[in-house]
């Protein structure tokens, strides 16, 4: 049988981990054999570069800020060596460029991907989420955009503190007073540009869903999880799969309402009186996607099959009460490996 | 090679005892420059400073300069060595070398005096 | 002899997913439309602006196609302020564009270029009584910006006995920040309607068009959809109230070019809507507005930067390489913000024009002026450059050849490469005489010896 060559990004398996390594692990534990996994890395310290039992070979790729043309050219050069069948991007920030070149990757190079279209991608952007949620009947915490600190201060004085101050693309901070809010406002606007978002705080427990949409509205898989322990970076350290039909139903509504194509993570707050507020819809698998595999749904494998044009039956069963407990691990790496990726751009 | 197996590292100061280099250039008259202990440079221009843990990359002409320093060449000899082989004016080369030595010092790859 | 490259050493600075700074270009940019950059610099000096006639025509035709395949009546008017070099204007006029001007100086340029008076849209808040008389005489389309102008024009037409063809500039909330509400009459607070009523009450003013220009480098096609919808609603209201048909809706310009805005995370060319996206948003708004098909107004467009930016290049040379006190590398070019006004808001792409190795350096790129704000790029990763090396700055066709400053040094040559690869000087470099010509020195100051 022909080896399946799958390239993926997100090898930064650090304390705020990217999903690349969990996705690679999911692919390895599926039925895709023989399989070769090619890592695509932005930074030479991404731990996945050195995990040779999971990643067969890795290549540096240009940062998203270099543009989609630079990315295409680099993937083309890698493809000439590796003949990639499917590429799975796993970072939010790179998705725009991957979506932009996905047609060219397919037609010019024969590389498949399974990504949302521009329209569904935009619908769930932070600045648009509230409107979109309203249309679908999904609650979203009150969110306003501010183009200046004076505008932000005005909104904050209407709402009172604490509140969330969020960057246009990433990063969110809880501000307890105006001084903090101002500091975050300037920090976020400098980093991600305007507008900055202000969001009302909703109190409750964090429940998340990892899901896979087929692009026509069907949800191929969805597994809900409650975070059991959260690091100071807001990442789940441990989580447990839930039996929560309402949550799954809301997740399916979101996947259907966006005709989502590919993996995604839906982050909710469940209030003590059982309301679900959608905080964010991330356009890729979460770093805890392996919990779905461990409880019976291999979403990354299904994504690859969908990308290759195979028909995949929706998965509805999963084991309730399965847990993940994340651990960190110090790899021992030879300097020669670090040198090699630094000087040759691959390892 | 003891430090890293299977790779062409030259442990510069293992090859020869540390060499005191007398710089004869106009600006650095009487100034001595020596490559720090155990600085490792590979064929690909990868430099590792085991004293600080930093790593660097240098281009091929930079590699040549470091190995000439290491051979105990004076600044004048280095300048001459490059001038005879590369297409460059002396004034420009001297300015570029000043900058390069300055950076080598900043990064604790060489020591002055 | 081997080719020389400066010795460099760079430290690996690991920062996981460091989001900014990366090499964009892997190849030198050695020619423009087949003409070697080196030959251009040898012949016309450095710095030097270069315009590609091919790119202008291709860009224009693409824009025209995008709109006219979606909407029945489309007319572009070349926005003179964007680039009013006659050669550039004539390319657009040959392609069928009218002229959009905002001052008598631009108006005169259009007339001298042979544009018929009735194909000139006269915009802007600064039209004198004399300007208005000339526009009236030539039957140009006068886009009224404020009530003072409306009253002034009303007096002038009364005296002249001629009828003025007018439009009003309208500002509105299109969900875009900042709202350009300083130009024209506001839609939401009914000031625009007030202006309509005043004009409709004047027998010698014909309300021919409705105009807006909602901003520049607009990334949102939705804003255009809203703007077109609102103008169409106003046209319908005028029809309902007065039975008067508006002949055209002028959506202005503002379409983004492929430049990257400062602080933008992604490359401009990756995030801007295409001409087809803009055209789709605008034409669906007009077609779906409820205006009967037979009565659809013409669609006028005043796109500036999106039509010319890509066609302009600035060639320049490295004056010096230095190191700043904090260790950063600085490169000084022979062009600065005097020629590249747009570097205040764009991160312009800069490509070396000669072969380079794979090594790069992060640097600040400065211009040659003796002022601290003369920064072309605050942070850019470029291959190793040496004094005298040539570089090409991309997408500089819009606003630079009109907003350039004669400060410290003179404006350089501008050349146009025609469709056959022929190079034409279209604006000669200024000299000390260019300036001195304008000056008059009092007799007692003609000599440097004390009087
Ligand atoms: C009235 C009017 N029309 C058209 C333009 C051209 O704008 P752009 O270059 O953004 O397309 C401008 C620019 O300021 C303008 O003021």
What does this structure look like?
The complex is a heterotrimer of chains A (347), B (113) and C (451). In chain A, 34% of the residues lie in helices and 24% in strands. With 347 residues, chain A is of the alpha+beta class. Chain A has a six-stranded antiparallel sheet with strand order 13-12-9-10-11-14. The mean pLDDT of chain A is 92. Chain B is of the alpha+beta class. In chain B, β5 and β6 (54-58) form a beta hairpin. Chain B is globular, with a radius of gyration of 14 Å. Chain C has 451 residues and is α/β, with parallel strands linked by helices. Chain C has two domains: 31-50 and 310-429, Lyase, Ornithine Decarboxylase, Chain A, domain 1 (Beta Barrel), CATH 2.40.37; 123-303, TIM Barrel, CATH 3.20.20.10. Chain C has helices at residues 37-44, 53-68, 86-95, 104-112, 129-137, 147-160, 191-200, 221-242, 268-271, 275-287, 305-308, 400-403, 432-436, and strands spanning 2-3, 9-11, 31-32, 35-36, 48-52, 74-79, 98-101, 120-122, 141-144, 164-171, 185-186, 205-211, 248-250, 298-301, 312-323, 329-333, 350-352, 360-366, 375-383, 390-393, 414-417, 423-427. In chain C, the strands form three sheets. In chain C, strands 5, 15, 16, 17, 18, 19, 20, 21 and 22 form a nine-stranded mixed sheet that branches. An eight-stranded parallel barrel of chain C has the order 6-7-8-9-10-12-13-14, surrounded by seven helices. A two-stranded antiparallel ribbon of chain C has the order 3-4. In chain C, α6 links the parallel β9 and β10. Chain C is globular, with a radius of gyration of 25 Å. The model of chain C is unreliable at 16-23 (pLDDT under 50).
SSE diagram, text form:
The complex is a heterotrimer of chains A (about 350), B (about 110) and C (about 450).
Chain A: E1 4-8, H1 20-28, E2 35-41, E3 57-60, H2 68-82, E4 86-88, H3 92-109, H4 118-123, H5 129-136, E5 143-146, H6 149-159, E6 163-166, E7 172-175, H7 178-192, E8 196-200, E9 205-214, E10 219-230, E11 236-241, H8 245-257, E12 261-270, E13 276-282, H9 290-294, H10 299-307, E14 323-325, H11 335-344
Parallel strand pairs in A: 1-2, 1-4, 2-3
Antiparallel strand pairs in A: 5-8, 6-7, 6-8, 9-10, 9-12, 10-11, 11-14, 12-13
Helix pairs in contact in A: 2-3, 6-7
Chain B: E1 9-11, H1 12-15, E2 21-23, E3 31-35, E4 40-42, E5 46-49, E6 54-58, H2 60-70, H3 75-83, E7 86-87, H4 90-106, E8 110-112
Antiparallel strand pairs in B: 1-4, 2-3, 3-8, 4-5, 5-6
Chain C: E1 2-3, E2 9-11, E3 31-32, E4 35-36, H1 37-44, E5 48-52, H2 53-68, E6 74-79, H3 86-95, E7 98-101, H4 104-112, E8 120-122, H5 129-137, E9 141-144, H6 147-160, E10 164-171, E11 185-186, H7 191-200, E12 205-211, H8 221-242, E13 248-250, H9 268-271, H10 275-287, E14 298-301, H11 305-308, E15 312-323, E16 329-333, E17 350-352, E18 360-366, E19 375-383, E20 390-393, H12 400-403, E21 414-417, E22 423-427, H13 432-436
Parallel strand pairs in C: 5-21, 6-7, 6-14, 7-8, 8-9, 9-10, 10-11, 10-12, 12-13, 13-14, 16-18
Antiparallel strand pairs in C: 3-4, 5-15, 15-16, 15-20, 17-20, 18-19, 21-22
Helix pairs in contact in C: 2-3, 2-10, 5-6, 8-10
Pyridoxal-5'-phosphate (PLP) binds next to helix 11 of chain C.
